[in-house]
Design brief:
This protein is α+β, with helices and mostly antiparallel strands and 77 residues long. It has three helices and three strands. The chain has one domain. A hairpin with a 2-residue loop joins β1 and β2.
Length: 77
């Protein structure tokens, strides 16, 4: 989901700054990348793992399409 892209991009950029592009993907890099879905974000004034927050954003989008709500839930960075 695009609203979460800046957070994921930052993590990947941090990994690239710490490690050479010439090296294989180490266990440390894989571990860092695999932690992304569990990273905490703030959404609707609550802390939530990113994977749950993306679901909440998607549900809010559906509710906007159906007319049940008028505001999309976005993460705060």
């Amino acid at each position: 989901m695009e609203p979460y892209r800046p957070l994921v991009d930052k993590v990947v950029c941090d990994v690239l700054q710490e490690h050479s592009l010439d090296e294989d993907i180490s266990k440390e890099i894989k571990t860092t990348l695999l932690k992304i879905p569990a990273m905490d974000v703030i959404i609707d004034d609550e802390k939530s793992p990113l994977m749950n927050a993306t679901q909440r954003t998607a549900v809010s989008l559906v509710r906007c399409f159906t007319g049940e709500q008028r505001k999309l839930l976005y993460p705060e960075f």
